[in-house]
Amino acid sequence: MDAAQTAALHESVLAWYDEHARDLPWRGLDATPWSVMVSELMLQQTPVVRVLPVHAAWLERWPTPADLAAETTGEAVRMWGRLGYPRRALRLHAAATAIVERHGGEVPSSYDDLLALPGVGDYTASAIASFAFGKRHVVLDTNVRRVLARAVTGVEFPSTAVTRAERDVATALLPDDEATAATWAVATMELGALVCTARQPACDACPVAGLCAWRAAGHPAYDGPPRRGQAWAGTDRQCRGRILALARDADVVTAAQVEAAWPGAEQRERCLAGLVADGLLTQITPGRWALPG
DNA sequence: CATCCGTGGCC
DNA sequence: TGGCCAAGGAT
């Protein structure tokens, strides 16, 4: 993609975002870095509509990292509700503690400091630095990867893992100006979330349809390696979810309740032990468990 | 690098 | 109906 095409791509996406961006709470002018950080952890593998109410309740109860750090991890897990992957609640709590200990209670602004926090990987560190602090970073999430795969590379879906070539493409497209780069990051994500979707891309409504390599090639079908879906029925994840749901909804969970929730004894015991090992559950007395206090 | 880790909605 | 997907991270 040459300089003129890159400029056209920037202009089209940024103009589209200016017009169509959703008014999400963590994007408001009054949104704190902590609000942005909480949203990013919650949004990992979780749809926006499900995050909205939990994010609001979370910020209401714990407006700063110090507020959360002063709480028990069990309360964080309970507040997490049914967002899924509850270890994220533990990581957010641990991150809040680290922020208090290492950063005076303020969410750090540098990529490296963010990356060092629990639950913060490359994507989340880049996203917080970019969205909360206006810094210039390549923000490669599933949406951006799909947009670039289609518009630039001309394939329907990106590879399973981020490749060097893919990162090079994203880096080459990142606007030089810091503020513009930050807007570009959120704008390309939004385009992937609202228009260039995985299942039914709305090419008719796409601001870069005229520049899209995948569309120009006639929307060739994906021909890469099969993208494995995650099994669910009968897995440890389902079993763990059942058990933890009991603990969220009560002060104490008994062995009888756990047995009623999952028939297989071996798997049940393994998952129970796993939840305790992960810090999601505490054994109070033999046969009785609760969220960590 | 492959696998594990929740949950719910959609076509 | 069930596979697929949703702002990934840790190991």
A few lines on this structure:
The chain is mainly alpha-helical. The protein has a domain at 236-290.
Describe the 3D structure.
By secondary structure, the chain is mainly alpha-helical. It has 15 helices and three strands. It binds a DNA duplex (11 and 11 nucleotides) through α2, α3, α6, α8 and α9.
Question: What is the radius of gyration computed over CA atoms, rounded to a whole number of angstroms?
Answer: 21 Å
The share of residues in extended strands comes to under 5%
Record field, number of beta strands: 3
Uncertain ranges = none
Net shape: globular
What topology emerges from the helices and strands here?
Elements: H1 3-20, H2 33-43, H3 48-61, H4 65-69, H5 73-80, H6 87-103, H7 111-115, H8 122-133, H9 142-153, H10 164-173, H11 178-194, H12 213-216, H13 236-248, E1 253-254, H14 255-261, H15 265-278, E2 282-285, E3 288-290
Antiparallel strand pairs: 1-3, 2-3
The structure holds a DNA duplex (11 and 11 nucleotides).
Organism: Nocardioides zeicaulis
EC number: 3.2.2.31
Family: Belongs to the Nth/MutY family.
